[in-house]
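Recap slide: Zinc ABC transporter solute-binding protein, sequence and predicted structure.
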Amino acid sequence: MRRRSLLALPGALPALLLPGLARAQEAPLVVASFSILGDLVREVAGGAVRLRTIAGPNVDAHSFQPRPSDAEALRGAALVVRNGLGFDGWMDRMVRAAGYRGPVATATDGITPRMMAGHAHNHSHGGGAERRHSHSVGPRQVPDPHAWQDLRHGIHYVRGIATALAAAVPAQAGAIQDAAGRYAARLEALDGWVRAQIAAVPEARRKVITSHDAFGYFGAAYGINFLAPQGVSTEAEPSAGDVARLIRQIRAESITAVFMENMGNPATLQRLAREAGVAVQGRLYADALSEAGGPAASYEAMFRHNVGLLVPAMRGQAA
Protein backbone atom coordinates (compact mmCIF):
# COMPACT_ATOMS: atom_id res chain seq x y z
CA MET A 1 0.00 0.00 0.00
CA ARG A 2 1.39 3.38 -0.97
CA ARG A 3 1.90 5.83 1.85
CA ARG A 4 1.00 9.43 1.16
CA SER A 5 2.68 12.33 2.92
CA LEU A 6 0.38 14.21 5.29
CA LEU A 7 1.40 17.44 3.60
CA ALA A 8 0.20 16.02 0.29
CA LEU A 9 -3.34 15.59 1.58
CA PRO A 10 -5.69 18.35 0.40
CA GLY A 11 -6.22 20.94 3.10
CA ALA A 12 -3.75 19.36 5.51
CA LEU A 13 -1.38 22.34 5.78
CA PRO A 14 -4.11 24.92 6.53
CA ALA A 15 -5.56 22.56 9.12
CA LEU A 16 -2.21 22.24 10.84
CA LEU A 17 -1.78 26.01 10.91
CA LEU A 18 -5.27 26.88 12.18
CA PRO A 19 -4.52 26.71 15.94
CA GLY A 20 -1.55 29.03 15.54
CA LEU A 21 -3.50 31.39 13.29
CA ALA A 22 -6.36 31.46 15.77
CA ARG A 23 -3.99 32.43 18.57
CA ALA A 24 -2.40 35.12 16.41
CA GLN A 25 -5.80 36.57 15.48
CA GLU A 26 -7.26 36.33 18.99
CA ALA A 27 -8.38 39.66 20.42
CA PRO A 28 -6.12 41.13 23.12
CA LEU A 29 -7.05 40.34 26.72
CA VAL A 30 -8.06 43.17 29.06
CA VAL A 31 -8.42 42.46 32.79
CA ALA A 32 -10.70 44.69 34.90
CA SER A 33 -10.64 44.55 38.68
CA PHE A 34 -14.41 44.59 39.37
CA SER A 35 -17.79 44.46 37.66
CA ILE A 36 -18.47 48.19 37.20
CA LEU A 37 -15.10 48.73 35.51
CA GLY A 38 -15.71 45.61 33.45
CA ASP A 39 -18.95 47.09 32.15
CA LEU A 40 -17.23 50.36 31.21
CA VAL A 41 -14.51 48.46 29.33
CA ARG A 42 -17.16 46.40 27.51
CA GLU A 43 -19.04 49.52 26.42
CA VAL A 44 -15.90 51.24 25.13
CA ALA A 45 -14.05 48.28 23.59
CA GLY A 46 -16.91 46.20 22.24
CA GLY A 47 -15.50 43.19 20.41
CA ALA A 48 -12.02 44.69 20.06
CA VAL A 49 -10.81 42.87 23.20
CA ARG A 50 -11.47 39.82 25.34
CA LEU A 51 -12.54 40.91 28.80
CA ARG A 52 -11.80 39.19 32.10
CA THR A 53 -13.42 40.74 35.20
CA ILE A 54 -11.83 39.52 38.42
CA ALA A 55 -14.43 40.47 41.07
CA GLY A 56 -17.64 39.82 39.17
CA PRO A 57 -21.31 40.71 39.75
CA ASN A 58 -22.50 40.77 43.36
CA VAL A 59 -18.92 40.27 44.59
CA ASP A 60 -17.60 42.56 47.32
CA ALA A 61 -14.34 44.00 46.02
CA HIS A 62 -13.49 45.41 49.48
CA SER A 63 -12.94 41.92 50.90
CA PHE A 64 -12.18 40.02 47.69
CA GLN A 65 -9.46 37.37 47.80
CA PRO A 66 -8.00 36.59 44.34
CA ARG A 67 -7.45 32.99 43.29
CA PRO A 68 -4.28 31.66 41.65
CA SER A 69 -6.20 31.43 38.36
CA ASP A 70 -6.88 35.18 38.55
CA ALA A 71 -3.17 35.95 38.76
CA GLU A 72 -2.53 33.53 35.91
CA ALA A 73 -4.93 35.50 33.68
CA LEU A 74 -2.77 38.61 34.05
CA ARG A 75 0.20 36.97 32.38
CA GLY A 76 -1.45 37.17 28.98
CA ALA A 77 -3.10 40.57 29.41
CA ALA A 78 -2.56 43.52 27.11
CA LEU A 79 -4.02 45.92 29.70
CA VAL A 80 -5.11 45.91 33.35
CA VAL A 81 -7.79 48.35 34.52
CA ARG A 82 -8.21 49.10 38.23
CA ASN A 83 -10.11 51.69 40.26
CA GLY A 84 -7.40 52.84 42.66
CA LEU A 85 -7.76 54.92 45.87
CA GLY A 86 -7.40 51.73 47.92
CA PHE A 87 -10.60 50.12 46.64
CA ASP A 88 -8.91 47.22 44.85
CA GLY A 89 -5.49 47.10 46.49
CA TRP A 90 -5.49 43.32 46.05
CA MET A 91 -5.12 44.01 42.32
CA ASP A 92 -1.71 45.58 42.93
CA ARG A 93 -0.61 42.50 44.87
CA MET A 94 -1.92 40.26 42.12
CA VAL A 95 -0.01 42.22 39.46
CA ARG A 96 3.21 41.77 41.42
CA ALA A 97 2.55 38.08 42.06
CA ALA A 98 1.91 37.45 38.37
CA GLY A 99 5.02 39.32 37.28
CA TYR A 100 2.86 41.44 34.97
CA ARG A 101 4.86 44.19 33.26
CA GLY A 102 2.22 45.62 30.93
CA PRO A 103 0.20 48.83 31.19
CA VAL A 104 -2.10 49.45 34.16
CA ALA A 105 -4.88 52.04 33.79
CA THR A 106 -6.12 53.55 37.06
CA ALA A 107 -9.63 54.88 36.50
CA THR A 108 -9.47 57.47 39.29
CA ASP A 109 -6.26 59.11 38.02
CA GLY A 110 -6.97 62.82 37.64
CA ILE A 111 -9.92 62.82 40.05
CA THR A 112 -9.58 64.75 43.31
CA PRO A 113 -10.99 62.30 45.87
CA ARG A 114 -13.37 63.07 48.69
CA MET A 115 -11.61 62.67 52.00
CA MET A 116 -13.41 61.09 54.90
CA ALA A 117 -12.70 59.81 58.38
CA GLY A 118 -11.42 56.25 58.41
CA HIS A 119 -12.39 53.94 61.26
CA ALA A 120 -10.16 53.40 64.25
CA HIS A 121 -8.07 50.28 64.12
CA ASN A 122 -5.98 48.17 66.44
CA HIS A 123 -2.48 46.90 66.00
CA SER A 124 0.04 44.93 68.04
CA HIS A 125 3.66 45.48 68.90
CA GLY A 126 6.09 42.57 68.83
CA GLY A 127 8.90 41.81 71.24
CA GLY A 128 7.61 38.91 73.29
CA ALA A 129 4.30 38.00 74.84
CA GLU A 130 4.76 40.41 77.73
CA ARG A 131 5.20 43.35 75.35
CA ARG A 132 2.55 42.34 72.86
CA HIS A 133 -0.50 44.56 73.24
CA SER A 134 -2.94 46.47 71.10
CA HIS A 135 -4.24 49.98 71.22
CA SER A 136 -6.68 52.06 69.23
CA VAL A 137 -5.61 54.61 66.69
CA GLY A 138 -8.18 57.35 66.17
CA PRO A 139 -9.98 58.16 62.94
CA ARG A 140 -7.76 59.36 60.13
CA GLN A 141 -8.57 60.93 56.79
CA VAL A 142 -8.69 58.43 53.95
CA PRO A 143 -9.73 58.86 50.29
CA ASP A 144 -13.21 57.68 49.37
CA PRO A 145 -12.70 55.29 46.42
CA HIS A 146 -16.35 55.19 45.22
CA ALA A 147 -15.88 57.96 42.64
CA TRP A 148 -18.04 56.20 40.02
CA GLN A 149 -21.11 57.14 42.08
CA ASP A 150 -20.94 60.60 40.45
CA LEU A 151 -21.74 60.17 36.75
CA ARG A 152 -19.39 63.02 35.86
CA HIS A 153 -16.59 60.93 37.33
CA GLY A 154 -17.97 57.95 35.42
CA ILE A 155 -17.46 59.93 32.21
CA HIS A 156 -13.89 60.64 33.35
CA TYR A 157 -13.41 56.90 33.85
CA VAL A 158 -14.68 56.24 30.32
CA ARG A 159 -12.29 58.72 28.72
CA GLY A 160 -9.30 57.37 30.62
CA ILE A 161 -10.21 53.78 29.79
CA ALA A 162 -10.62 54.71 26.11
CA THR A 163 -7.16 56.28 26.03
CA ALA A 164 -5.60 53.18 27.60
CA LEU A 165 -7.49 50.81 25.30
CA ALA A 166 -6.53 52.79 22.20
CA ALA A 167 -2.87 52.52 23.18
CA ALA A 168 -3.19 48.79 23.90
CA VAL A 169 -5.11 48.04 20.67
CA PRO A 170 -3.92 50.73 18.23
CA ALA A 171 -5.55 49.06 15.21
CA GLN A 172 -8.94 49.70 16.85
CA ALA A 173 -8.16 53.14 18.30
CA GLY A 174 -10.63 55.02 16.10
CA ALA A 175 -13.52 52.68 16.84
CA ILE A 176 -12.70 52.73 20.55
CA GLN A 177 -12.71 56.52 20.74
CA ASP A 178 -15.96 56.70 18.76
CA ALA A 179 -17.62 54.22 21.11
CA ALA A 180 -16.34 56.15 24.13
CA GLY A 181 -17.80 59.37 22.76
CA ARG A 182 -21.22 57.80 22.24
CA TYR A 183 -21.16 56.21 25.68
CA ALA A 184 -20.08 59.45 27.37
CA ALA A 185 -23.02 61.23 25.69
CA ARG A 186 -25.41 58.63 27.14
CA LEU A 187 -23.93 59.10 30.59
CA GLU A 188 -24.27 62.89 30.31
CA ALA A 189 -27.95 62.44 29.46
CA LEU A 190 -28.35 60.04 32.39
CA ASP A 191 -26.70 62.58 34.70
CA GLY A 192 -29.30 65.14 33.65
CA TRP A 193 -32.11 62.66 34.30
CA VAL A 194 -30.78 61.86 37.79
CA ARG A 195 -30.58 65.57 38.66
CA ALA A 196 -34.15 66.16 37.48
CA GLN A 197 -35.46 63.23 39.51
CA ILE A 198 -33.71 64.32 42.72
CA ALA A 199 -34.72 67.96 42.24
CA ALA A 200 -38.36 66.91 42.59
CA VAL A 201 -37.71 65.86 46.21
CA PRO A 202 -37.79 68.65 48.84
CA GLU A 203 -34.29 69.28 50.19
CA ALA A 204 -35.38 68.57 53.77
CA ARG A 205 -36.40 65.03 52.71
CA ARG A 206 -33.13 64.16 50.99
CA LYS A 207 -31.71 61.93 53.72
CA VAL A 208 -30.89 58.27 53.19
CA ILE A 209 -29.53 55.48 55.40
CA THR A 210 -27.43 52.81 53.65
CA SER A 211 -25.32 49.88 54.84
CA HIS A 212 -21.88 51.44 54.34
CA ASP A 213 -20.51 54.79 53.25
CA ALA A 214 -20.45 54.15 49.50
CA PHE A 215 -22.65 57.00 48.28
CA GLY A 216 -20.65 60.08 49.31
CA TYR A 217 -19.92 61.12 45.73
CA PHE A 218 -23.54 60.51 44.76
CA GLY A 219 -24.70 62.67 47.67
CA ALA A 220 -22.29 65.50 46.88
CA ALA A 221 -23.18 65.47 43.18
CA TYR A 222 -26.96 65.23 43.50
CA GLY A 223 -27.73 66.88 46.83
CA ILE A 224 -28.55 63.94 49.12
CA ASN A 225 -27.28 63.39 52.67
CA PHE A 226 -26.27 59.73 52.94
CA LEU A 227 -25.67 58.24 56.39
CA ALA A 228 -24.30 54.78 57.16
CA PRO A 229 -23.45 52.68 60.22
CA GLN A 230 -20.36 51.28 58.46
CA GLY A 231 -17.49 53.31 57.07
CA VAL A 232 -16.04 53.45 53.58
CA SER A 233 -15.29 49.70 53.60
CA THR A 234 -17.76 46.87 54.11
CA GLU A 235 -15.10 45.28 56.33
CA ALA A 236 -15.43 48.05 58.94
CA GLU A 237 -17.58 47.17 61.94
CA PRO A 238 -19.80 49.98 63.28
CA SER A 239 -19.64 50.77 66.98
CA ALA A 240 -22.69 50.54 69.22
CA GLY A 241 -22.46 54.31 69.65
CA ASP A 242 -22.56 54.89 65.89
CA VAL A 243 -25.67 52.74 65.56
CA ALA A 244 -27.38 54.42 68.53
CA ARG A 245 -26.72 57.89 67.10
CA LEU A 246 -28.21 56.88 63.76
CA ILE A 247 -31.31 55.46 65.44
CA ARG A 248 -31.83 58.75 67.28
CA GLN A 249 -31.33 60.72 64.07
CA ILE A 250 -33.79 58.56 62.11
CA ARG A 251 -36.43 59.14 64.77
CA ALA A 252 -35.74 62.86 65.25
CA GLU A 253 -35.66 63.70 61.53
CA SER A 254 -38.32 61.22 60.37
CA ILE A 255 -35.98 59.59 57.84
CA THR A 256 -37.90 57.07 55.74
CA ALA A 257 -35.30 56.13 53.10
CA VAL A 258 -33.45 53.15 54.60
CA PHE A 259 -31.73 50.71 52.25
CA MET A 260 -29.63 47.58 52.24
CA GLU A 261 -26.95 47.05 49.61
CA ASN A 262 -26.37 44.07 47.36
CA MET A 263 -23.42 42.83 49.42
CA GLY A 264 -22.21 42.73 52.96
CA ASN A 265 -24.00 41.60 56.09
CA PRO A 266 -27.49 43.18 56.29
CA ALA A 267 -27.94 42.31 59.98
CA THR A 268 -26.75 45.67 61.35
CA LEU A 269 -29.00 47.67 59.05
CA GLN A 270 -31.98 45.43 59.72
CA ARG A 271 -31.48 45.82 63.48
CA LEU A 272 -31.08 49.58 63.11
CA ALA A 273 -34.30 49.84 61.09
CA ARG A 274 -36.20 47.63 63.51
CA GLU A 275 -35.11 49.63 66.56
CA ALA A 276 -35.83 52.95 64.81
CA GLY A 277 -39.29 51.72 63.80
CA VAL A 278 -38.81 52.12 60.04
CA ALA A 279 -38.99 49.70 57.12
CA VAL A 280 -36.07 48.80 54.86
CA GLN A 281 -37.13 50.11 51.47
CA GLY A 282 -35.15 47.79 49.22
CA ARG A 283 -31.68 47.04 47.94
CA LEU A 284 -29.30 49.53 46.35
CA TYR A 285 -26.30 48.62 44.20
CA ALA A 286 -23.11 50.41 45.16
CA ASP A 287 -19.85 48.48 44.73
CA ALA A 288 -20.88 45.81 42.23
CA LEU A 289 -23.42 45.21 39.50
CA SER A 290 -26.13 42.56 39.60
CA GLU A 291 -25.99 39.35 37.62
CA ALA A 292 -27.12 39.51 33.98
CA GLY A 293 -30.89 39.84 33.94
CA GLY A 294 -30.90 41.53 37.36
CA PRO A 295 -32.00 45.11 38.05
CA ALA A 296 -28.49 46.60 37.86
CA ALA A 297 -26.63 44.54 35.27
CA SER A 298 -24.89 47.60 33.81
CA TYR A 299 -23.53 50.92 35.09
CA GLU A 300 -26.45 52.79 33.52
CA ALA A 301 -29.01 50.32 34.85
CA MET A 302 -27.50 50.64 38.34
CA PHE A 303 -28.18 54.39 38.39
CA ARG A 304 -31.71 54.00 37.07
CA HIS A 305 -32.48 51.28 39.60
CA ASN A 306 -31.04 53.19 42.56
CA VAL A 307 -32.73 56.49 41.69
CA GLY A 308 -35.99 54.65 41.06
CA LEU A 309 -35.89 53.42 44.67
CA LEU A 310 -34.42 56.50 46.32
CA VAL A 311 -36.87 59.12 45.07
CA PRO A 312 -40.14 57.59 46.35
CA ALA A 313 -38.48 56.50 49.61
CA MET A 314 -37.23 60.02 50.34
CA ARG A 315 -40.71 61.34 49.67
CA GLY A 316 -42.05 58.92 52.27
CA GLN A 317 -43.87 56.69 49.81
CA ALA A 318 -43.90 53.04 50.88
CA ALA A 319 -41.86 50.56 48.85
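Residues 25-113+144-181 form a domain with the Rossmann fold fold (CATH 3.40.50.1980).
The longest helix spans residues 173-199.
(End of recap.)
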